[in-house]
Amino acid sequence: MYDKKPFLLTPAGKDYIWGGSRLRTEYNKDLGLEPLAETWECSTHPDGPSVAANGVHKGMSLRRILKEHPEYMGTSARARGGCGARDGELPVLIKFIDAKKDLSVQVHPDDGYARLHENGQLGKTEMWYVLDASSDASLVLGFERDMTKEELRKSLADGTLEKYLRRVPVRRGDVFYIEAGTVHAIGAGALIAEIQENSNLTYRLYDYNRTDGEGRKRPLQIDRALEAASLARGARTEPVRRPVRYGNGLASELLCSCPYFQVERCLADPEAAGEEAVLGTLRDSFRALLCLDGSGRLYTDENDFFQFFKGDCIFIPADSAPVKIRGKAEFLNVRC
Q1: Residues 122, 202: Cα–Cα separation, whole Å
Q2: Active site residue: 24, 63, 80, 204, which one?
Q3: Closest CA to 93 of 108, 103, 106
């Protein structure tokens, strides 16, 4: 007997040296870590699994739940996850990221490279939604011109890499799609929601000669990075007008649709809409709702509900009953 009802997730946290405190102070992530750089909100990855916080599966890791009930993923998610889906692995991973300091300049491999060189793992294509940014915040996205491996290696050796990197200013509401192979870095002052393939493969090219708490420089993976990286000039990013759709008590806009995931930004506002928000469920995929702001109650029927707040992540199994949202909230709606 199982219960295809939505449930809240408790995240895993990461205390990387570049992190800050905003996830604790603004998103209620009291995980006992300082700094708190990332929270892995919807994760089956062994490096940071999330755990059911309520419902019949309370206290179980999401991976264990999905291993016992793979139907919760949906047919599309199971197909995209490949054989890993049989072990409860979702094909996606959802995070909050607080960059108090610059992240390392890095690159993620694509699926083909990762399968060949990283024991069959997935590569990492990702999407960033900027929740907030300081006035001078920026991102690294590729290069100002085409590079060769020889030029890039020389720039790393002589300390001139930064002059070749393309920096893009960011502001709240920006969306960036980071294909595997793109040399990139999140800059200081950016607060980001990230949706990515289920992978923790990162090859560091450059880390500003920083040291960890014990005075050691963090390791670089220059050879692997050069093999995996695209060295072409970075594509220019222009603001994209995203049409807003209204229906079932929700305003929603499509942020990203790619071979790995689909992400919508949704606003539930019963006072403005004149009705409660209704979110239909899907046969072919789970949904994960990441609450960016506001609060409310999520219902499957009048006598079955739970409260959610800013920062919460809700897992909705595939083919569950439709859910209703009462309250004023902004969230990302993620599916495969």
Answers
A1: 12
A2: 204
A3: 108
Domain 244-335 belongs to what topology? Jelly Rolls (2.60.120)
pLDDT value for 240: 64
Query: By C-alpha distance, which of 164, 141, 157 is closest to 222?
Result: 157
Averages of pLDDT over each 10 residues, the chain, 336 residues: 84 97 97 97 98 97 96 88 79 98 98 96 97 97 96 96 96 96 98 98 95 86 97 74 84 94 92 77 94 95 91 96 93 97
Residue 204 bears catalytic tag: yes
Give the CATH number of domain 7-228; options: 3.40.50.970, 1.10.3210.10, 3.40.630.30, 2.60.120.10: 2.60.120.10
Q: What is the predicted pLDDT for the residue at 313?
A: 98
Fill in the DSSP letter of residue 82: G
Q: Are strands 38-42 and 92-99 parallel, antiparallel or unpaired?
A: antiparallel
Least Cα distance to 104 among 233, 199, 229, 218 occurs for 218
The pLDDT of residue 85 is 72
Could you give the CA distance from residue 21 to residue 41 in angstroms, rounded to a whole number?
A: 17
Cβ atoms of residues 138 and 116 within 8 Å: no
pLDDT at 77: 82
Token match 């755990």: residue?
51
Tens digit of each residue's pLDDT (9 = 90 or more) over 222-237: 999 999 999 999 876 6
Domain range list for the chain:
7-228, 244-335
Cα–Cα dist 141/176, whole Å: 9
Q: What whole-number percentage of the chain has pLDDT above 90?
A: 81
3-class secondary structure, 335: strand
Maximum alpha-carbon separation in the chain: 66
CATH fold match for the domains 7-228 and 244-335: yes
If you write DSSP's letter for every residue of 163-230 in order, what string do you get? GGEEEEE--TT-EEEE-TT--EEEPTTEEEEEEEES----EEEE-TT-B-TTSPBPP--HHHHHHH--
